[in-house]
Amino acid sequence: MVLAGGNDQIELIKGIRNRFPEAEVILIDMNPNVRAREYADKMLVISTMDFDKVLEAAKEEKIDLILSACGDQPMRTMAFVSEQLHLPCYITYRQSLNLTNKVLMKKLMVEGGISTSKFRRFDINSEINIDGLDFPLVIKPADNNGSKGIIKVYSKDEFDKAIAEAKRYTLSGDLLVEEFKTGEEYSIEAFIKDGVPHIVFASKNIKIKNRNTFTICRNEYVGQLQAGLEKRIKEIVARIGEVFQIDNVPLLIQMIVNGDDVNVIEFSARTGGGSKLFFIRQMVGVDIIDNLLDITFGYEPDIHPDPSTDKAAILYVYAKPGQFTSIENLDTLMSEGLITEYYQYKSFGTPILSSNYSSDRPLGFLIRGKDESELTDKISRVNDSIRVLNENGEDIMCHEIFR
Ligand SMILES: Nc1ncnc2c1ncn2[C@@H]1O[C@H](COP(=O)(O)OP(=O)(O)OP(=O)(O)O)[C@@H](O)[C@H]1O
Ligand SMILES: [Mg+2]
Fold this sequence. Notes:
Blueprint (H helix, E strand, L loop, with lengths): L1 E2 L3 H13 L6 E3 L13 E3 L6 H11 L12 H12 L7 H8 L1 H10 L7 E5 L13 E5 L9 E3 L5 H9 L6 E6 L4 E10 L2 E12 L8 E6 L5 H17 L5 E10 L2 E8 L7 H9 L3 H10 L13 E7 L4 E2 L2 E3 L1 H6 L5 E4 L6 E2 L10 E7 L2 H14 L1 E3 L14
Helix pairs in contact: 2-3, 3-4, 4-5
The protein binds adenosine-5'-triphosphate and magnesium ion.
Magnesium ion (MG) binds next to loops.
């Protein structure tokens, strides 16, 4: 049983079939039109967050395994159902709670000495005391993802409005506020194997400028990490394993790096979404889906990254509201080698409502060059010629993001 039906899960399904050609794959997603549907044997239209319904379906179908790969909150459903039905799973339900609730996670990080910014927890009914915290601050719902309801505030005046907005995105009613850390945001893909940290891939998350929200528009390949930073990150990965009592797991970490100062924002025991697995295959030759399946079944994963010396980035495309109808010039850009790979996240005909969240983007593309100047040049040429058309043939892509 596979939770959610995006492009990344298509690769998961292929990975499962590769290993178990006889496997019957059941896909769970609340959207009946997801792309992974045609790769599964059967689809059940259920929310991946509906524990009871997913459990019921799992029992009925007599499943042998449930996996969510790169889904953040569905990881809890995976752990819950696995525990109830005694299926192999690399985390317990208890562990999945600490890994999907930002308040529980921050609390454990602080107690366990994992460097992270100062924070306070509060719920939607209580007064918040921010004495001892320095502006700018970041307000967050405890139990969401995709940067929904994450807002940066510079002063007490902006507080109430930001809290009202953040509240809209919390299920449990828990919120947290933490100090904003300046620096570059790194996204680290790693595994912990028998207590030993293995770093697979490092990239930088670049956000859309001039907003007080954190919409990601680009993921940049870092290549071989500088030795000091790599050592520091490995220590953090190992410490996370100890403090959160997790082992033989994939680990995706977001951190802010500023010189020698490394601060963990959060992490999850899963592989990265947003086409990361394709990016990793391209740049370091590791198949994280294969590794994830190995970890799940207790086999030795083959984690030997061979970092390319190229520069590369995945650009995430956003568009103004309208119906996503077609993409112009994509084939030419691919055949000219300006775009290495592209990832379509929405089917043609889908309405685009906003350009705020990762779930809003219609597509992404991977661009690589032999050096920084070739990469920059290719990005600007792609941005100049690609067109994302609405039903009236008008270009609705937000080109300014990449200028
Ligand atoms: N303390 C902080 N200092 C600086 N930037 C922060 C901080 N906390 C969050 N951010 C920014 O906000 C973004 C989203 O935060 P966070 O990862 O906690 O929420 P999320 O809902 O899981 O979002 P995403 O799915 O995009 O990771 C981060 O990627 C980072 O750019
Ligand atoms: Mg996050």
